Q: What sequence folds into this?
């Protein structure tokens, strides 16, 4: 199901590698590395429910809602074991929140809390605030967060049966963990964000057009030249032919992202996901209600195929890349949070394998 014409879709794009000397914080939107915890949050290393290996951190998204007083960060983890590839059970998504007062209580008067800035190009949606903050604010928050982490002590609590063992954050107490699971750490990249309809002239598209030509030859479908990343809608003269693998949903997916093939994330809070293969017949029943407050869960964002090459090219585990078509994240509509909680809330994640991953290699 494609997003409706009335929905605001924000597109996340890789914005360069993160230098190891650079501090990041819970406000940083990023790929890979380790999660940056909100000051009050304690997190045990998530493990795969299928093979019991430690899960690797895939993305971090800072996404406070305009109607909520909370800072809000979502972290997605996945198993790099090839036998678990493409299975939703080998992924986990965690939502963390805290109030300004919680942060200020752990900072001195010279530090600043994370706040929205002019660096953000757009709002998440009608119900959400901006991405990120400016460089000076990020450095201040990161330095403060570093002090907080160095003073923090891990709590003996699990998010679910998937969370156990070694604390992810190096500043937390690791002595309390027995037989810590080992998880591969992906190379870290910044994620920049902009509206899908505001990407005109983002960069040269020669490489994307070459990939698209290869796809057209292989699948027998004409999509047309990509004029530039996000330059309005794809060509209206799009001609649909008989797709070799018979998947018109995939063809529609490719047409939609031809506006910006290198997008790694699509965000549309309470919007509609973009399925890469036929959506489950009972998709509304498939997504469970929030286990904490009983509210329905809504679609929030999805990870895109272009992210795969960034993950598989990093580190020593590049011979066993993480592969997927798209990864859909659904979160509590009320974004419920128990006052005083220090443990992330597990949300719902659904993985669709890519029927033609070669296009993004």
A:
């Amino acid at each position: 199901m494609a997003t409706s014409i009335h929905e605001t879709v924000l597109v996340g794009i890789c914005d360069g590698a993160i230098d190891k000397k650079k501090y990041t914080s819970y406000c940083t939107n990023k790929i890979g590395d380790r999660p940056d915890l909100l000051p009050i949050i304690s997190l045990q290393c998530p493990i795969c429910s299928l093979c019991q290996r430690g899960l690797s951190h895939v993305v971090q998204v800072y996404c406070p809602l305009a109607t909520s007083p909370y800072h809000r960060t979502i972290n997605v983890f996945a198993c790099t074991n090839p036998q678990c590839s493409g299975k939703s059970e080998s992924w986990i998504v965690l939502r963390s929140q805290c109030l300004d007062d919680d942060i200020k209580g752990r900072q001195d008067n010279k530090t600043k809390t994370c706040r929205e800035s002019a660096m953000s190009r757009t709002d998440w949606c009608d119900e959400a605030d901006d991405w990120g903050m400016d460089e000076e604010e990020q450095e201040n928050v990161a330095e403060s967060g570093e002090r907080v982490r160095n003073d923090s002590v891990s709590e003996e609590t699990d998010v679910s049966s998937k969370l156990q063992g070694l604390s992810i954050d190096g500043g937390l107490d690791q002595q309390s963990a027995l037989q810590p699971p080992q998880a591969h750490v992906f190379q870290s990249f910044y994620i920049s964000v902009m509206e899908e309809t505001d990407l005109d002239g983002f960069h040269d598209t020669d490489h994307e057009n070459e990939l698209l030509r290869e796809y057209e030859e292989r699948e027998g479908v004409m999509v047309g030249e990509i004029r530039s990343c996000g330059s309005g809608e794809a060509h209206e003269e799009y001609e649909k032919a008989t797709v070799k693998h018979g998947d018109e949903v995939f063809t529609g997916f490719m047409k939609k992202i031809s506006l910006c093939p290198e997008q790694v994330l699509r965000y549309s809070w309470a919007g509609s996901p973009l399925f890469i293969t036929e959506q489950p017949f009972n998709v509304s029943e498939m997504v469970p209600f929030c286990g904490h407050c009983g509210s329905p869960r809504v679609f929030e964002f999805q990870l895109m195929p272009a992210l795969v090459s960034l993950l598989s090219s990093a580190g020593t585990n590049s011979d066993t890349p993480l592969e997927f078509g798209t990864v859909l994240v659904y979160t509590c509509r009320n974004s419920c949070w128990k006052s005083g909680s220090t443990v992330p809330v597990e949300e719902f994640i659904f993985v669709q394998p890519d029927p033609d991953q070669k296009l993004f290699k």
Q: What stands out?
A: Residues 325 and 352 are 5 Å apart (CA to CA). The longest helix spans residues 135-151. The two ends are 25 Å apart (CA to CA).
